[in-house]
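Q: Give me a protein?
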Amino acid sequence: MAEAASSIFGTLARVPEKAVSRTEDLHAALHVSDRPFIVRGLAADWPLVKAGKQSAKAARDYLVAKSRERPFVVSVGQPGGDGRLFYDESMDMNFRMMNAKLPEVFAQIDREEGQQNAHTIYLASIDMHDFFVGLHEDNQVDMGERQCLASIWMGTPTRIAAHNDFPDNLAFCAVGKRRFTLFPREQFRNLYLGPIDHTPAGRAVSMVDFHAPDFDRFPRFKEALDHALVAELEPGDALYIPSMWWHHVEGLSPFNVLVNYWWRETPRWMGQPESALQLAMLAIRDLPEDEKRHWRDMFDHYVFQNSDEAVAHIPEQARTVLGPLTPELASKLRTFLLRALSQ
């Protein structure tokens, strides 16, 4: 299995690197790039990175010292597993969720470190402000005017199936080593996505095991690999992942920490496109074919083309949601939808 994984990753194109010496250079690169790129050593001066270079235990002690006295959500896989947090054969999750304070979680990692039958332990997308005191302030980069969500991901070796996220993402390898395998947005058909409403972490994931791909079952995955990029990160390195790019993520060291910033270029009050997709499945997908064709035309007219022709005959003050959206109009539309869905 390891040989199969090595042969795949070794043949993929590499994510390009950018030299960033000033904050302005980073902002400019993020503004103009529509493809992933790596910045080596961008977080090399972080105290967390320096602690991790001393030892994994030093990194854990540093994190515990800054953690709040509150339960953390932790995913725990089977002992002796390969770190893949995924579905089991019955399409249930192959891990369980539990709550524990960070010293308790790390004490378990300490006890099992180096053992072949160790549990997979993973703390995913932990808000740095809510769960730590001073961690973000001491370990950050200047993101300018972007309104970012700062999260930290910690755990033993893990394999997270390929998925995508709506926001843009700047991810920092803080402790250990990470490997990302990335695919452009349009490759979703070749990644063989699983359920969209029953997922390991809220997003549809590729059903392909990247360490042992079954090309008989997933033949189009070969096409996806032709478009794939791979990024291998050392402590302090950063990776930019544009919105909706698919990424398979591996924590390769006995203990791994990732810090990431998520941000949107559109207002948060616009909501999640995924919600519209699921609502369309509820209301449109199972209609007769002729009705579905009609609604496809309606979506093109009002949503995807969204031309002046669609509203030119309506007085501007009367266009409501057919005109430019505002927070107030979005709130009214959300209220209407909630009332309609409750009937």
